[in-house]
Amino acid sequence: MSSTGSTRLKRALDSAEADGRKSMGIFLTCGFPQLDATLPLLQAIDRAGADFIEVGMPFSDPLAEGGPIQNSSAIALANGITLADVLAVVRAFRTTSETPVVLMGYANPVYHFGVDRFCAEAAAAGVDGLILPDLPIDEAEHLRRAAAANGIDVIFLIAPNTPDERVRSIDRVTTGFVYAVAFAGLTGDTIDTGVTLQRYLDTARRLISNRLLVGFGIKSADDAAIASVHADGFIVGSALISYVQVLWDDHNLTMNDRLSDVESFVRNLRPPTRN
Predict the structure, then answer these.
(1) Burial of 152: CB neighbours in 10 Å, binned 0-12, 13-18, 19+
(2) Is 65 one of the annotated active-site residues of the chain?
(3) Could you give the CA distance from residue 13 to residue 224 in angstroms, rounded to a whole number?
(4) What per-residue confidence (pLDDT) applies to 60?
(5) Domain boundaries in the chain?
(6) Given pLDDT bands bounded at 50, 70 and 90, which one contains residue 87?
């Protein structure tokens, strides 16, 4: 069953709804483009008004990811990033911010680290949620129990081809929100914001009791506005990763220039509030 308790993530989503706006989640791969840039980038995203931040745990074979996030993961791994480093960055971020942090990655490193140990250390670092796209709900009971024991929400994904009964099953075990993959493709592909997407999200909304956030392929405020008509919020990842890469490739920019540009980029992703 979904948890009914209040968590930092749920409170942030509640706050966005109370303010009459869609929740905005922003994804950044930890250790990209360099390890010492991750914390200031997270702080820039926070200043720009993200309701929560997804921190990517790099993995050598990120199956659901398109080119930008795959590349960022490869760069982070080449930089020597470890799960311990990811938790250290979150711990440092948590000293100055209460914005929820959701870790997103793949099951293998977490299970290799040890599920109980990982959840305990993640909670101690200030992690609020966890997304492992390659972990089916049927195999996730140990993780869900360990996460719940440490106050961490576990978020599962649905896709346009997920059968209705499976959507209901996912809703029963997810906490925080249900992550609706906008299309059956890779992150970073171009989103189709037409009737097919709207019908899919409208159907999902009728099937679930959790909040519904949509991601994959959202690159602008216009995309976000259209994609989240039938959702409670949206998540942007590849578009920011690509932009960060452009900024770091420009050696004429200072670190402050880059962080300021990232802050502006994220702020401009939010659609106008409609009360």
Answers:
(1) buried
(2) yes
(3) 16
(4) 81
(5) 8-268
(6) very high
Give me the residue label for tokens 């996730």: 140
Half-sphere exposure at residue 23, Cβ-oriented, CA atoms within 13 angstroms: 30
Active-site residue, from 17, 65, 165, 263: 65
Q: What is the pLDDT of residues 209-256, one digit of tens each?
A: 999 999 988 999 998 998 888 899 999 999 999 999 999 999 999 999
Residue among 54, 98, 139, 141 flagged as catalytic: 54
**pLDDT at site 191:** 52
CATH superfamily of 8-268: Aldolase class I (3.20.20.70)
Q: How many other β-carbons are positioned within 10 Å of the β-carbon of residue 186?
A: 19
54 is catalytic: yes
Sequence letter at residue 209 = S
d(Cα 26, Cα 238) in Å, to the nearest integer? Answer: 10
pTM of the model: 0.92
